[in-house]
């Protein structure tokens, strides 16, 4: 009997050990796939470039660039698809597949043939005339940015990859050429974007959500209102995304100024309005007069938005990974530092594949953060966030304001959440005021008035409250009434812990990346000096 009990306890212990190690298996699998990708980059670069002078430096730079690309995919792509996943317009798997395809497509099709060797002009390349010093500088900057993005992803904080590489270049540049090498005016503009981007994104998203609520969900007949408003919203969305792609996503393929891009967008918007108006009215015939039913009208537009945002992101932000790598390739191949560098196809492929692999392996964590851990999203709210992402970039580009796509998207999520808080609080105050006015009356009378108030349109609600206040003005309020009217049922619909974590990560991105860039530059230089 003792032997049987001992054997049973041993089996239970083994089972507990197996359960404890089960969590680590997916993590090891992801790590293994990531390492295999880096090894493949080493093999390819070694076979094709090891024999050239400085070939081993190029191999090291290619690995660092691939690591940076994976971290961009893990952290930054979540901003494009997170709201669609959080609103359940897309499944997590579907979002990853769409984002991976369109990110890679944007990078390879519209990523450009030439890139600036110094991102954002943060340092003067003429101040780093020595080729080896320049190569060490760019390697340090890439590695610093990649490490910070890795840490931020592990902490669940979506940060700007552009700011990360800017910080790395700034720190490594100062370490290489002194304080005078930096363009402090450019850095000041980048710092301004910490405030401009989230505020603009939040205001635009909140404005669209308020418009949708006032014109559709606050109306007594939501389906009739949706038939009038939703086609117009989809037309505006089409204009915004076509204009956005014309200005940003396709600028390497075709040069369009704002007027040309806007007119092109206007043409597609008119076509969209003609095509969707009758279809939406037909779909509304089968829908109930409820907010949940109206939400379904925004599902397909969100899928298109996720795809187009991913394409534009791949076309623009792949340069954060391959720009420094292209600059290193140019310096090693031609033996001199250039202000512009051509992007070889293999370098662009490393960036595109790295972003896609990083997204597939580690993207779900940040997708969940953006999509559901800040505030609860439905299709309408996610639609407003997508609109804010496109419109803010268009507005900022015309005003010459520096903005971050990451900060815009996350700021839009917060804007939607804080508007919801305000509206819930205001509505609770209205109900409280109604109850205070009817204090002492029959409960059935109070409930009947509240039901009429809830079903009324925005205009009717205003009239009911106005009449209520006018009627009450002649009567002396009791102490209980005054106390009840002042009481507001505030509900926190935005997670403050997420807000503080993300804002803190934003604030330290540039300085921390700069410190790491300087440290890594001195480390690499010390290792490679004879």
Shape: elongated
Radius of gyration: 28 Å
Percent in helix: over 70%
Whole-Å distance between the termini?
A: 72 Å
- What order do the SSEs take from the amino end to the carboxyl end, as H and E? HHHHHEHHHHHHHHEHHHHHHH
The count of β-strands is 2
Domain count: 1
- Major beta-sheet overview: 2 strands, antiparallel
Q: What structural class is derived from the secondary structure elements?
A: mainly alpha
- DSSP strand (E) fraction? under 5%
Instruction: Output the strand order for the largest sheet.
Output: 1-2
Question: Averaged pLDDT, please?
Answer: 82
Can you count the helices? 20
Low-confidence stretches: 473-477, 481-489
How does this structure look, described?
- It is a single chain.
- The protein has 530 residues and is an all-alpha fold.
- A two-stranded antiparallel ribbon has the order 1-2.
- The protein has one domain.
- The termini are far apart.
- The protein is elongated and about 90 Å long.
Summed up:
The protein has one domain.
Keywords:
530 residues; mainly alpha
Itemize the secondary structure elements and their pairings.
Blueprint: H1 2-22, H2 24-49, H3 55-75, H4 78-86, H5 92-110, E1 114-116, H6 131-154, H7 161-177, H8 184-217, H9 222-249, H10 258-284, H11 291-295, H12 299-317, H13 319-334, E2 340-342, H14 345-373, H15 379-399, H16 405-437, H17 443-455, H18 458-473, H19 479-486, H20 496-528
Antiparallel strand pairs: 1-2
């Amino acid at each position: 009997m003792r032997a049987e009990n001992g054997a049973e306890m041993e089996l239970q212990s083994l089972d507990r050990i197996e359960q404890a190690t089960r969590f680590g298996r997916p993590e090891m699998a992801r790590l293994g796939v990531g390492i295999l990708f880096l090894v493949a980059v080493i093999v390819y670069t070694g076979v094709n470039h090891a024999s050239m002078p400085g070939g081993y430096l190029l191999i090291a730079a290619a690995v660092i660039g691939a690591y940076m690309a994976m971290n961009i995919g893990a952290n930054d792509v979540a901003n494009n698809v997170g709201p669609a996943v959080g609103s359940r317009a897309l499944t997590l798997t579907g979002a990853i597949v769409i984002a991976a395809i369109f990110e890679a497509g944007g990078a390879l099709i519209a990523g450009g043939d030439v890139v600036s060797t110094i991102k954002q002009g943060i340092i003067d390349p003429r101040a780093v005339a020595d080729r080896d010093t320049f190569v060490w500088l760019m390697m340090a900057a890439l590695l610093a940015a990649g490490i910070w993005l890795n840490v931020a992803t592990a902490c669940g904080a979506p940060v700007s990859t552009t700011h990360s590489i800017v910080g790395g270049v700034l720190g490594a540049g100062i370490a290489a050429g002194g304080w005078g090498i930096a363009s402090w005016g450019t850095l000041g503009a980048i710092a301004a974007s910490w405030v401009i981007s989230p505020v603009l994104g939040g205001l635009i998203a909140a404005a669209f959500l308020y418009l949708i609520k006032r014109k559709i969900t606050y109306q007594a007949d939501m389906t009739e209102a949706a038939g009038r408003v939703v086609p117009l919203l989809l037309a505006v969305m089409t204009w915004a995304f076509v204009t956005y792609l014309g200005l940003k996503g396709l600028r390497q393929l075709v040069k369009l100024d704002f007027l040309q891009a806007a007119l092109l967008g206007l043409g597609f918007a008119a076509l969209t309005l003609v095509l969707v108006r009758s279809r939406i009215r037909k779909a509304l015939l089968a829908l109930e007069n409820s907010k949940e039913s109206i939400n379904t009208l925004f599902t397909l537009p969100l899928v298109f938005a996720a795809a187009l945002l991913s394409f534009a992101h791949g076309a623009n932000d792949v340069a954060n990974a391959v720009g420094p790598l292209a600059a290193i390739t140019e310096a090693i191949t031609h033996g001199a530092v250039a202000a512009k560098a051509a992007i070889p196809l293999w370098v662009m492929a490393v960036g595109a594949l790295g972003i896609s692999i990083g997204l597939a392996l580690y993207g779900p964590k940040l997708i969940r953060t953006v999509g559901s851990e800040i505030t609860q999203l439905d299709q309408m709210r996610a639609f407003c966030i997508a609109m804010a992402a496109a419109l803010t970039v268009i507005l900022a580009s015309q005003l010459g304001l520096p903005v971050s796509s990451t900060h815009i998207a996350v700021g839009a999520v917060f804007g939607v959440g804080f508007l919801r808080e305000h509206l819930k609080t205001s509505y609770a105050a209205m109900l409280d005021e109604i109850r205070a006015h009817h204090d002492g009356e029959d409960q059935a009378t109070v409930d009947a008035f509240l039901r009429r108030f809830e079903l009324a349109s925005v205009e009717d609600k205003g009239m009911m409250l106005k009449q209520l206040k006018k009627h009450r003005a002649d009567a002396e309020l009791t102490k209980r009434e005054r106390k009840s009217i002042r009481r507001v049922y505030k509900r926190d619909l935005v997670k403050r812990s997420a807000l503080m974590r993300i804002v803190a990560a934003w604030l330290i991105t540039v300085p921390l990346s700069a410190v790491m860039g300087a440290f890594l530059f001195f480390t690499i230089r010390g290792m490679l000096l004879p």
